[in-house]
Amino acid sequence: MASPLVLKENFSGDILSNIFKVSTNEQLQDYKVQVENTVYGCHKLMLCAVSEFFQCLIRSDMIESRTNFVQLKDISSSTFALILKLVYTGQDVVTKDNCIDLWYASDRLGIAFLSERCQEMAISCITVQNCGQMYQAAKQLESKPVLEKIYALILSKFKRIKENGAILLLEFEEFLKIISSDRLVVHSEDFVIFSVIDWVMNADLGAPNTNNANKLNYSPKGQSVPLDNFDDEIKEIIGEKEEIDAMGSNSEDSCRKVSVHSSNSSEKKVKLLKTSHGRNAYLPKLLHACRFHQASPQCLSQVFLHPLIQQDPEARKIIFLAVLDKVRCVKRRHHETDKRTPCACNFDTIFFRVLMCFALITLAMLLALANE
């Protein structure tokens, strides 16, 4: 039995060099590929050796096999030229600038080793600026390693990626996974809540909603409304504080009866809400993933009055209960402070009086000894 042929490294390099030299000889070319306005003379053997697409095409009984000619679409001429360079020379043509185009083309043509190389390059060059483009490619090409790298980047750079619009490209399950994660790095929960509203409102490939009618103003942590003024904020949302106390534990039923002091939604706002293209249905689930106990009063008041929330009974109930919990928490803190303060004052007063009595007794004893 003959042993398999083993080529030395310098032999394989020479063979590839000679193949490249004769590749431009039209007499030896037996197959033509048109990409855009350019026709490339190729060789069936080389195309079939690297591409499952060409192997199935050339071995079939289709007209492209009988005429030895095929026209490729969805691939640019420059990208196909790089693929031919790789096929005939063995050179690594993948860079961070062309890896996405080559990735799409290699998947289209069934060039497995090139797809793997492009995936490796994509993982190594994912940044805040290009993660949106990388995400779209990874989703279409079903690349789990690239998606995992993008998720990790979003968790650590959520605010910057949201500002680039890439967050708005995420599908529901992926967005829910991000905002539910304990590893999400944000300076304030307000930004997460506002991002949920933006994601629902913007479904057109991440096109930001710039209309001021539904715009939420994000305030960094430390610039929200003081807790002492929170009662005034609540009055604008759900009426007098006594109404909240009267609700008591029956808050679930009360949230349907509460009077909201906000202007009626205009036709313009209703039209804006229709642009969410079905994302409204995901709003309650996304709100349940938010951590409202870490949100500022200003954030809760803005979100509650937003027309998107007002038109969704379940979402309105979620925000209302969050507001109610915040009010109770604030009142509890104020109540505990009021209890501690008189106790501290009484203790200081008693201590001062005892000290004065002790000083007077000591003074009297000293005077008595002096008279003796």
Describe this structure as you would to a colleague.
This protein is mainly α and 372 residues long. It is 61% helix and 4% strand. The protein has helices at residues 9-22, 44-50, 52-58, 63-67, 77-89, 99-109, 112-124, 131-141, 144-156, 158-164, 172-180, 189-201, 230-238, 241-247, 251-254, 267-273, 283-289, 297-304, 307-310, 313-371, and strands spanning 31-35, 38-42, 69-72. It has a three-stranded mixed β-sheet. Helix 6 runs antiparallel to helix 7 (112-124). The termini are far apart.
Break the fold down into its secondary structure elements and pairings:
Blueprint: H1 9-22, E1 31-35, E2 38-42, H2 44-50, H3 52-58, H4 63-67, E3 69-72, H5 77-89, H6 99-109, H7 112-124, H8 131-141, H9 144-156, H10 158-164, H11 172-180, H12 189-201, H13 230-238, H14 241-247, H15 251-254, H16 267-273, H17 283-289, H18 297-304, H19 307-310, H20 313-371
Parallel strand pairs: 1-3
Antiparallel strand pairs: 1-2
